[in-house]
Design goal:
Length: 748
């Protein structure tokens, strides 16, 4: 169900509606293809069958792949369709290519309409089970929570049995969390009723997007169809800016709720909009009357609020502290360019004790390889760029006299290729960074041509399974040059290059917007000749692996491109980092063997992997209660350690940022005796309250996120320790230093 609801969220986020009129009342009536969609499908087939890195014809064989992927896209957990539903459409299994070529999409829409019918039936059955509430928890039943690889249910009765266990498990979770039957019944009924609302807001554009992605992703995992709005959001994510009022919004029930107000934005500067306010009406400009947006899809509300810089928008708001019948307020704001600073590069300095010495390690966290392509093209001298931001931060860290620098690329999914190349150039003199091979076997070398380094001292890169694409290019280049130490777990393994193609290029004079294709045109290769594809980057010093390669990463895709290699580029290594790795590994092993938090986290990871492998939970209350009690006992033991007066005496100490010191001092003086305490560990298991995100209050949700951000980052702390160890070794072993950092040695 989690993946099923994720599907609904994705379909909402990737809406391809071009306008900002009131959304169509959909889903209770069968959906049909809209004008222009058949042409968009045809245009897509031309591009993918001829221009893709792995061109595949749109034929009967491809039709079979689309057929299977389309059904799985709609029902990933196989909780709605039965095998009979699949069989009734078996006659078109090899004819979806004809549907696209002949511009007739009636069959894909008929399949979706059947899905909507089954969705409504299954949710109605679940609500009936909740209403009856006749569950016993003494038998030895089990519930399989991941059915992605399961077979389709053979009958309606079998599907109902799956749903009975589903509801029983959710009832038991809430019961174990201390809820009584009345409260459980109310919570679950509202939960299932809530599933119907986004489903009923799905439109023909959503159906088309799902079907076209079933086609695109049948060729290769990173090929996608993007509707106009999805393409716009992709561009916003790359440039880290948009034109609007500076509010992060969220859907709760039928309301659009303010989740965050961006500091310095029009909304923030006005002082009239607060977290928790409900937006119930929007006038897109001064001439337009207020449009009620109660019950609207979130992306439709966002589209109405966004607009050109210096234009006016008027909001009708129910204040956060007022009830549903509270007095409405009207706020007029002037849209401005909003910078999404939360996703920008940030620095921190950690101090580590090394005997009588103290080492200072600078950490730069980079969530994505962003660049404002449009601003750069226009010649804007202040265009947003990951490399420019990191270069500035390196300059600040130099002034702060740090001994080592760690680039934290955990969960950085990539971004701009040019940014990856230029960022590498901050740490090497000059030379090749990455190679690209196109479908016709032409190899191009992307190089850093700017001599000199922004940082010539020791450095490292922290990666995990979520580090992909541009992150892997950077980490691989640093590793191949022997320039720094790669720490963490094996990366994602995405070694392919995508480009965007505007389908309106086929019909430049038409007003209809056909959307864009993001499709693979080349493959990345490291300068050593290997590719990051499939295998990713293997760290020099490994930390516990939190992910599962069967569930997440390039190797989890059945149609991923294979690993291969080509002739290496000509390059001169910047150092012999391998010489120091055995020493650092030994120190690392000795330290984590004594680090309780590290051991606890490793235990949690092992437990999660065990549960994932078993893929089932008991529906026996006594068994589950025993498991819960064991988990709570572990959590209390760890919490007591974290809250003790002297936790982690050897932990790296975060050096306060002078810019934030005043604010923290004011906050501390406002709460005498208040002292920040670490109350959790990032990645650790937490107690299950049986609730889903929207079922908690917004205040509770935001507080939980705040605590998660403040939680102890055991893996980052260990990476900082490794960086400190490197400095200690290099300062005491000049011969080692001359091999590891020959450039730095020559400059002194």
């Amino acid at each position: 169900m989690k993946k099923q609801m994720l599907l609904v969220a994705i379909m909402t986020a990737l809406s391809v509606q071009a306008g900002i009129a009131a959304p169509e009342k959909a889903a209770d009536t069968p959906l049909k293809p809209l004008p222009g969609q058949t042409m968009a499908a045809r245009f897509t087939s031309v591009v993918l069958s001829k221009g893709h890195y792995k061109p595949l014809p749109l034929d009967d064989a491809m039709s079979e792949k689309i057929f299977d992927r389309y059904f799985k896209s709609l029902d990933a957990e196989k909780m709605f369709f039965t095998q009979a539903d699949i069989d009734q459409y078996s006659i078109v299994r090899t004819r979806l290519d004809d549907a696209i070529n002949n511009e007739n999409l009636s069959v894909p829409f008929a399949i979706f309409n059947l899905y909507q019918q089954r969705f409504n039936e299954r949710i109605a059955y679940a609500r009936e089970l909740v209403k009856q509430g006749k569950f016993e928890f003494t038998s030895d039943e089990t519930y399989q929570y991941d059915r992605e690889k399961a077979e389709w249910a053979k009958s309606d009765a079998e599907v109902k049995e799956l749903w009975r266990k589903r509801v029983k498990n959710e009832w038991l979770r809430l019961k174990l969390a201390g809820k009584d039957d009345k409260s459980i019944r109310e919570t679950l009924d509202k939960r299932y009723e809530g599933y119907l609302s986004p489903s009923r807001k799905l439109t023909s554009e959503d159906v088309f997007q799902i079907f076209m992605n079933a086609y695109a992703m049948s060729i290769e995992p990173h090929t996608n169809y993007l509707g106009p709005r999805a393409a716009e959001n992709f561009d916003i994510a790359m440039r880290l800016s948009l034109e609007g009022i500076g509010c992060v919004l969220q859907s709760r029930d039928d309301y659009t709720v303010v989740r965050e107000v961006v500091t310095g934005s029009p909304a923030g500067l006005s002082g009239k909009i607060k977290v928790g306010d409900k937006i119930v009406g929007v006038a897109k400009d001064e001439k337009t009357p207020i449009t009620e947006v109660l019950g609207w899809r979130l992306d439709d509300v966002v589209a109405l609020i966004r607009g050109p810089k210096d234009s006016t928008v008027k909001l009708e708001i129910i204040p956060a502290d007022a009830g549903p019948d509270g007095k409405h307020q009207f706020v007029t704001l002037v849209r401005q360019k909003i910078s999404m600073e939360e996703q920008s590069a940030k620095k921190a300095i950690y101090e580590v004790k090394d005997g009588n010495a103290k080492r200072r390690v600078g950490v730069i966290s980079l969530p994505t390889f962003y660049m404002d392509f449009e601003a750069r093209r226009k010649g804007d001298k202040d265009f947003k760029s990951a490399t420019r931001d990191v270069k500035r931060l390196l300059g600040e860290l130099k002034k702060d006299k740090v001994d080592n620098v760690l680039i934290d690329l955990r969960n950085n999914g990539g971004g701009s290729l040019s940014e990856a190349v230029e960022l590498t150039g901050l740490f090497i003199d000059k030379g090749p960074v990455v190679m690209q091979r196109t479908g016709d076997n032409k190899v191009e070398v992307e190089s850093d041509t700017d001599p000199g380094m922004a940082w010539d001292g020791p450095m490292g890169v922290l990666i995990n399974r979520g580090s992909a694409s541009a992150s892997e290019i950077f980490a691989a280049a640093i590793q191949d040059y022997g320039r720094g130490i790669i720490i963490g777990e094996p990366s994602f393994g995405k070694g392919t290059v995508q480009t965007l193609f505007d389908l309106n290029r086929f019909a430049p004079g038409e007003k209809t917007r056909y959307g864009e294709l993001k499709y693979t045109v080349a493959q990345f290769f490291r300068i050593n000749g290997g590719t990051t594809q499939l295998r990713g980057v293997t760290p020099d010093i490994k930390l516990p692996t939190m992910g599962d390669s069967d569930q997440y990463g390039e190797s989890s895709y059945e149609n991923a491109l294979p690993w291969t290699q080509i002739k290496p580029a000509v390059y001169i290594p910047a150092g012999e980092i391998k010489d120091i790795l055995p020493v650092l590994d030994k120190k690392h092993d000795a330290r984590v063997a004594k680090d309780k938090d590290f051991q606890y986290l490793a235990e949690d990871i092992a437990l999660v992997k065990k549960q994932r492998k078993e893929n089932s939970v008991s529906l026996n209350e006594s068994v589950r209660r025993k498991e819960r009690d064991q988990q709570e006992a572990r959590a209390k033991l760890r919490e007591a350690r974290l809250l003790s007066p002297t936790p982690g005496a050897d932990d790296p100490i975060l050096v306060p940022d002078p810019k934030e010191a005043l604010n923290k001092a004011i906050s501390a003086s406002a709460k005498p005796g208040a002292k920040a305490k670490v109350a959790g560990v990032k990645g650790a298991l937490r107690s299950d309250d049986g609730l889903q995100g929207s079922e908690r209050s917004l205040a509770a949700e935001l507080e939980a996120e705040k605590q998660a951000k403040a939680a102890k980052d055991v893996l980052l702390n260990e990476a900082v320790h490794i960086m400190s160890d490197e400095v200690g070794v290099l300062k005491t072993d000049t011969r080692m230093a001359s091999r590891v950092l020959p450039y730095a040695a020559d400059s002194k």
